[in-house]
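User: I'm writing a tutorial on reading structure tokens. Could you give me a worked example: one chain, its sequence, then its tokens, then a sentence or two explaining what the tokens reveal?
Assistant: Sure. Here is the example chain.
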Amino acid sequence: MGRAGQALKQVLEIYGISQNKLAVTLGVERGSVYRWVHEIRDPTAETVVEILESLQQLNPDAAQEFIRLYLGKVVEGSDTEDS
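And here are its predicted structure tokens:
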């Protein structure tokens, strides 16, 4: 399964955000968040954006960490490509 679930699991653990709290903020069932976190199902690209927006509401630092963990080198390398 994909990197989104791994990144989401780490962020929720690091920042103490419950799966239920994220689900409520997203407006989805907790089971959906559970399936992403346990890599049973990958969130769609649209859902990843919604996860990011929800994390931004709950904890902006968590949102930034999610981006870093999910996109990793893609984001980190973007600053050095212009040099």
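What the tokens reveal: The mean pLDDT is 90. Residues 11 and 29 are 19 Å apart (CA to CA).
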